[in-house]
Amino acid sequence: IIHKNEEEGAVLAFLTSQLEVEWACENFSDASAVVLPMHGKLSHVEQSRVFKSYPGKRKIIFCTNMAETSLTIKEVKYVVDSGLAKESRFVPSSGLNVLKVNWISQSSANQRAGRAGRTGAGKCYRLYSEADFSMMDVHQEPEIRKVHLGTAVLRILALGVKDARKFEFVDAPNPEAISMAVKNLEQLGAVKHRLNCFELTDTGRYLVKLGIEPRLGKIMLDCFDVGLRKEGVVLAAVMANSSSIFCRVGTDEEKHKADLQKVRLCHRDGDLFTLLAVYKKWEDGHDNRNMWCWQNSINAKTMRRCQETISELENCLKHELNIIIPSYWRWNPEAPTVHDKDLKRIILSSLTGNLAMFLGHERFGYQVISTGQVVNLHPSSSLLNYGIKPEWVVFTEILSVPNQYLVCVTAVDHDALYTIHPVSFIQHLEEQKLQIKVISGLGTNLLRRFCGKYGQNQQKIISRLKEDCRDDRITVEINFQNNEVVLFATEQNMEKVFCTVNSALKCEGKILRNECLERNLFPGRPGSSPIALFGSGAEIKHLELGGRYLTVEVLHQNAHDIDDKELIFLVDSIVSGVANFHKSTGSFRIASDGIKWGKFTFLKPENAEDAVSKLNGIEFNGSSLKLVPVCTSDNRGLPFPAVRAKLCWPRRYSSGRALVTCASGEAEFVVNDCFALGIGGRYIKCRVSTKYENCVFAEGIPMHVTEPELYDAFRSTTARRILNIRLLRVKGNAIASPSVSTCEEELVREISPFMPNKSFPGQNFRVEVFPPEENDSLTRATITFDGSLHREAARALDHLEGHFLPCCQPWQIIQCNHVFHSTLSCPVRVYNVISQEVASLLESFQSQKGVSYNFEKTENGIFRLKLTANATKTIADLRRPLEILMKGKTINHPDLTLSAVQLLLSRDGVAHLKSIEQETGTYIMYDRQSLNIKVFGHQEQMAAAEVKLVHALRQLLEKKPLEICLRGHNLPPDLMKKTVENFGVDLEGFNKEMPEIKVELHQHRHLLKVWGSKEDKRRVERMIFELASFKHSSLVQLASENVGGKEDNQRVDYSEPSEDACPICLCEIEDPFRLESCGHMFCLACLMDQCESAMKSHDGFPICCLKTGCKEPLLVVDLKHLLSNEKLEDLFRASLRAFVASRAGMYRFCPTPDCQSIYQVAAPDAETKPFSCGACYVEICTKCHFEYHPFISCEAYKEYKEDPDSTLLEWRKGKANVKSCPSCGYTIEKADGCNHVECRCGSHICWVCLENFRSSEECYGHLRSVHQSFVDIV
Questions:
Q1: Catalytic residue IDs
Q2: What percentage of the chain reaches a pLDDT higher than 70?
Q3: Does the keyword Zinc apply (predicted)?
Q4: Which residue segments constitute the domains of the chain, with CATH numbers given?
Q5: How far is CA 769 from CA 373, 694, 787, 816, in A?
């Protein structure tokens, strides 16, 4: 506002910190203005820019409180005052120095206003109200009330004053501050309490002579005692100037570079050691120290101030205490020695009140022992560059901006704590600290199941643990990158937390290992096919041929509110053998006994029966559980595009009467026209109905006549309009009808001859007969045909029309409804890209006679289209183009490897996907389970989208950086520092070796990102690995990230160390795939080849991990990811053959060629039973495996099959009245009559001599002339 509306003149805006100043400078952009920062960490050159003139542009200066009194800028005419300033203040109640943003005083506000218009009229804009101004202190609080009083109290006691609280101050500080200062001096050993007064010790007298802050003096004196004179003086100087030694200013890139430069200088023991190391490097032989400071982002001005302070301290020590400070250093920052321990102990003794303990988790940070405050390390702390959290630290002050941070933090040794606190006190504190336990080697899918949707399962476990243990700090974290679960809890609660989480993980792992796919051996109605459970290792876990149920449906009144995991654990704890569970999706379906929650499938029928008997009626979540056995199928839908036809037949006898509805006023005319109407070989009587208006009542109708036949008879007799005919049937109970399954089997037999594959009708059509209700007069059925066989379907329906089933009575005539239906559906996003094509097709349907459709959007957001037509061919023709549109196209391309496809889940992948969809007007769907990519839209658009997507994923894969973690359980803690030292701040060392490579270091994540060719990426990885291996033995090992102490880092590892070579091809892993059960890595192509080999050879089951020594089977979830649905079906069939072959003749396939059904072989001593194949309808003897042969033993039938004439020869032995025809060989048995016998082949035979004649006359002539008789004479 000032810049746009006010006259010329510079603007000076007061902010609270360097961070705010830099943010304001970055976000204010205007071509007509020059924006300048002003704060204490800028170099002299940068600070001098605010005094320069910039003609034609307004100068806008964002500054901290330093511009309030220390400088005057002549051109400033406008001041913006925030009314706030950041200042360090000693808090007596906590004994800590806190850097915090506070309101300024009225005098400071006036001083700021005075910066405007020093050479002319000016304005001050105050960003606070007049009421706020009136509430400010009139004058700035005296400095003595804001600082630690240690030095002042020392001087007062040195003057002989026995009680500092009774000293007459000009501006008396808080008595509590004086008491705290005395307490701190007593801790430092500078004063001692004697006879109700305080006296100076020798240390105190030395500190008075030195004239510096007691803590700094104490550090120097203690360093002198261990021979570290040089180090003690330097440490006191850099500690006094710690806030401004490192310089982090400029753009984000410049700040990032400054951070990396600091990494090289950081020391593993914390910030004070880092500052000590910085000064040592600055002092060690640099010709141009200013340049060195610039190159390392060090404030040269502060370093000179430190040097001056050191010089003053050396002179003071020489003259006051007669101590000479040497010029050499005994402490070496590069090599850990006993001096490190001495320095940490000394720093601890001087900062006793500033001790903090790590609480075990980064979120909770450190607890300040003296106050109980929970504070985190400041982001600039050197310790963070090592990725560690030391168990115990000391700090100089707390920064509050507005979050609180520990500043200038130094790690301290655990054993040194006992010199300042009792052992019991330290142990009590450590009992409150969170311990860590890592459960590693877990599969990705196991972790996903444990986590649950949106982390719900994980949060439930955490909430329950917090409640049970009464500790809100308990945390369970999932690290998907390292496939591990990390537990945080106190030592007393850790066992309970571990047992709870480990139990949940084992339960999820058990579900994954036991998971089976329930497969029908052949397509058909539910319950008609035997069921196989296809499980881990691609093995058949159970083959159910007896029709017993394996699946139960769970019903519950509160199914919406059930905790799914609790229900699963309940079922698993009571009943063994859970193979799978499936929760109902979408809206919950309501049954008579409750709401359907879902289904459980068990490994054996006995397990399912146990579930029904043991779980039924159990109280759960406020209501009783209800379990119902169900017959399931594969849930894979029909194997063909469906066209449905409806048919029905009567259940009750016809009463011989019918009600004919006529057009208004035409009933009498119909009666006259249909006088003596004949139908079904009978005349029927017609009269006008007295009960129903415009109706004709017909009587005497034959029982077998159907409504369509009656309708045709009336229409052929009268020209009047017949609206409807209803055949009246007898009241009372319906006749005993055959079972639904019997009717279905009979319908299948009637239709099968019209289908191309007569032996396996389930592949072409399905029949469903609906159980009739008690009052139903008709039995109804639906036949679902393969839409491509519309001609065969039409012939089959014509055959059924007017006929009755063999299992029914002759009057139960089948009526076919010649209105056919077919339904298609697609999601909203698919419809959005094909809507124009669908609309165009639907518009073309309107012109076709007998065609109608219903198009609607369901509650679940699915578009459903129901087509209706009067012919099966019409339905098939209508459906075909729609199906092509809604089915989309699966993208199969050699460049779409697993690594490339998974990039679709990344941010860049999603962005590219959306961009391609917008450009091409298509919808691209990625199925995470099958790892398939489908594209929907117009043919040309889909082709363009496929090309663009493959190209984009190829580019993404090439551009995807290799991420190398520089911290972890097996890496040295200073690996990031060594990387920067070896390869430079700009990592130019990598570019010298590989010019085309790009490398970035993300400091806070300890992550190295590498862009380039595959060979270059691997080369960088090897270089880092070699660096870690080379340095590892010589580095001091510290606890891992987020770990306070070594004894806390417990690891439960369920996997073996990984290797780079694929166990199958023994080459470097290409397109890696991690197995769920054991975590071993393989090439994706190698695992697919292993499955393909099992399919072709029908051997190699169970399919197991081929890693040496590991025989863990591949789980179903692995097989789903590795194979398409078609390949998975092929693997199931191969496994089924291997299962049958391995059972030593216990099972056999149906002998019909290509039949997929299986039967169990009868035991040798068992009764012979037939096997009726539900796929091809043949009957087989389960003992001899020939056609079923009732009343004949298997041995006799087998002999007959081998020699069909053997039984005939046995039968005719010794029978004189049995002979063979001399012409055709047919066996003839003569019971009585003359000796002339005519064979079925037409020959006339003399029974006495078996001579053959062409006619009976010739035969009789022969009998008369040769044998003198037509018959045998007894």
A1: 1234
A2: 89
A3: yes
A4: 2-141 (3.40.50.300), 145-198 (1.10.10), 212-429 (no CATH), 433-500 (3.30.1370.10), 550-630 (3.30.70.330), 654-729 (3.30.70), 740-755+764-887 (3.30.310), 892-959 (3.30.1370), 1147-1202 (no CATH), 1216-1266 (no CATH)
A5: 74, 36, 20, 14
The predicted pLDDT at position 278 comes to 94
Q: What share of the chain is helix, strand, coil (3-state, %, to 5)?
A: 40, 25, 40
Using left for φ > 0, alpha for ψ between -120 and 50, and beta otherwise, residue 322 falls in left
- Specify the DSSP class assigned to residue 242: G
- Dihedral (CA of 223, 224, 230, 234) sign: positive
Q: Is the Cβ–Cβ distance between 1044 and 389 less than 8 Å?
A: yes
Tokens of 243: 């806030």
**Given the DSSP bridges, would you call strands 722-729 and 695-699 parallel, antiparallel or unpaired?**
unpaired
Listed residue (1269, 1051, 1146, 979) closest to 540, CA to CA: 1146
Is-contact 723 661, C-beta < 8 A? yes
Q: What is the pLDDT of residues 117-162, one digit of tens each?
A: 666 678 889 999 999 999 988 887 766 555 556 667 777 777 666 6
DSSP secondary structure code for residue 59 in this structure:
E
Tell me the pLDDT tens digit for each residue of 724-779. 888 888 877 778 888 888 888 888 888 888 887 665 666 678 888 888 887 888 88
Give DSSP secondary structure letters for 404-473. EEEES-EE--TGGGGGTS-HHHHHHHHHTSEEEEEEES--HHHHHHHH-GGGHHHHHHHHHHHHHHT-TT
Give dist(CA 274, CA 382) in Å, integer: 7
Please measure the distance between the N-terminal and C-terminal CA atoms of the chain and give it in whole angstroms. 146
Q: CB–CB of 60/28 below 8 Å?
A: yes
Q: In the structure encoding, which two tokens stand for residue 21, read together?
A: 């100043």
- Which residues, at least 6 apart from 924, have a Cβ–Cβ distance to it below 8 Å? 913, 916, 917, 933, 934, 935, 936, 945, 949
Contacts of 1100 (CB under 8 A, 6+ apart): 1090, 1093, 1094
List strands edge to edge, sheet with 404-407: 84-91, 96-103, 397-400, 404-407, 374-377, 366-368, 355-358, 392-394, 410-411
Nearest-angstrom CA–CA distance, 147 and 153: 12
Query: What tens digit of pLDDT does each residue of 239-255 get?
Result: 888 888 888 877 788 88
Alpha carbon 267 to chain centroid, angstroms: 40
Tokens 């979120």 sit on residue: 363
Provide the CA 81 distance to its chain's centre, in angstroms. 51
- Counts of helices then strands in the chain (DSSP H, E): 39, 58
> Residue 1193 CB: number of other CB atoms within 10 A?
12
Q: Give the torsion sign (CA, 239, 240, 245, 251).
A: positive
Which residue's structure tokens are 């389960």? Answer: 1182
**Looking up tokens 């009336």, which residue turns up?**
714
Question: How many Å separate Cα 823 from the centre of its chain?
Answer: 32
Q: Is the pLDDT of residue 475 over 70?
A: yes
Give the C-alpha separation, 215 to 410, whole Å.
Answer: 15
Nearest-angstrom CA–CA distance, 895 and 892? 9
The CB-based long-range contact list for 461-470 (8 Å cut-off, 24+ gap) reads 461/500, 461/501, 461/504, 464/500, 465/489, 465/493, 465/496, 465/497, 465/500, 468/496, 469/493, 469/496, 469/497
Residue 980 and residue 1001 in contact, taking contact as beta carbons nearer than 8 Å: yes
